[in-house]
## 1
Amino acid sequence: MKSIKYQFLVVLLLFAATAQSQDSLAQLKKPRKLDVFPAISYSPETKLTLGVIGIKYFDFRKGDPTTPLSQLEFFTVYTTAKQLLVEGRWEFFTSQNRWRTRGEAIYNHYTDRNYGIGNDAGMLIASQTDDTKDTLNYLLFKADRIKFSPVVLRKIGKGLYLGLQYDMETMFNVEPVPDAYHFLNADSSRLTQLPVSGWRSGAGIQLLYDTRDFVANPLHGSLVEFNALHYHKWFGADYEYARFMLDARQYINTFSNQTLALRGFVSIQTSDGDIPFRALSRTNGHKFIRGYFRGTYQDFDLAAFEAEYRLPFWKEGEPTKLKHVWKRLGLVAFISGAQAFHSGDEFAFDRFNLAAGGGLRILFNQSSRVNIRVDYAFGLQPNSGGPGKRQRGLYFFLGEAF
């Protein structure tokens, strides 16, 4: 969650960086190799944040116009609270889409929140840090995190891919941030029974159906992704469990270059014992259910939906000039909801925690349709931020949420 008072300074910096990045018809034919801009922000958790965010493009198409550009997204920041985040995500395509690889590699040294397990974010903790006393519905903790999740896919039909994937994550040096804290309700003590540190390592299959016209910001098309992973001591894991996930997205070109983007998501975990904190099915901050901090709602299983309407002011195929920088802008509105549950009999349509919001888009690269994303979202659940408090968030990133 971001501090709005300081974040609007970032909008001006990003807008200025965008204004200097002008596309031309020649660049539409020969795409730019790199998009990069400064990542500067402030929040109470991180203090001042300085770094870079960007996309590196690779052209493996060999003249095939049906093959998308390959890209590597990177994000590196350091905060004055002595936190470090280094993240990379990639999606590479070979000619005629015969093969593709996707995944992420992450190192974080940062402060995170543990809301416990459940769909109500009802855990209450009284904490004291230095001279500050507060009542929270989460426990702050520091940790180091390493994650590596590659996928290799082979095309088996039109828009259809099948492949293998590996997922590894470890958290270590875990320690609570408060100098002292105690639980205010009996159920909150279950938080200490939720394992946080340790290794999770597993492998499985991914089935992918992808007909999007643009990977970064589709105008129309579909994306359906099914994952089945098994985590076992054979792979070096400290925990044994299975995970099944279905992520379905539809992009509808409603009018001109406007898009209605829809998403449905289901994640199910099966285990005879405990599973680690980061393996839970959970809301996920800026990329998934904006308006709630990541993990506000988490359990073995999760069901969620998102809908977003994208209204760009720029036109496809018409290059923009510096004096027409307002044509690089666009607006979006979105609504979403998620519910966490431990078994299928707990699922109910009236248990979704809803969120809504809107945002500004600034066209960064016309050939790939990549936007700078500035979103503000409200969690509509009245107790998500503690008794009688709603969560909200302001987000700055490169590329769409989904």
## 2
Amino acid sequence: MTKLYVGNLPFSATEESVRALFTPHGTVETLSLVSDRDSGQPRGFGFIEMSNSDAARAIQALNGKDFEGRALRVNEAQSRESRTGGGGSRRY
């Protein structure tokens, strides 16, 4: 199973519309769109899980594709542990 990051989604995107976009490329096992904790407003990205071969097909077909006026970013999600950054030691 591969987890995909789907970014630059229009704020009007729904789980149904995103599922419909990915379904022609394989079976969508899970789908979650991220919303702001406080306001509940969409954040413009989400995650989808698909089988490895379906995920590769979806990345190939949908990365950079226009979806409701926005060019999608679709790639394999990075695990939280491997992310860097934060810059916690900066002083202003």
## 3
Amino acid sequence: MNEKTRTVCEAGWERKAEDITIMDMKDRSALCDTFVVMSGSSTVRVKAIVDRIEEAIEEAGGRVYHKEGYQEAQWVLMDLGDVVVHVFHEQMRRFYALERLWGDAPRKQYLK
């Protein structure tokens, strides 16, 4: 796990993100090396997770190149370059089943 991925996971964990999953996308996507997928139990929690990730990435000298979905806080996508973060409201995560869509991607759970 690279330092950026670790920073994202730790920031999510600090704001009580649930089911943090790291997916290796190196051989599956030209857009990024890693997906980090996590969920929050409410829109307020989703926004708090996203805010903390953005803050932690900037503190580490990185930047968020693009962020979308923040207003609705159902599925927020954050482009950090080689890492793409998906922060879902837990109901939307079940509905879209992103992990199942990329079922062949190696993955691991982040456990503090």
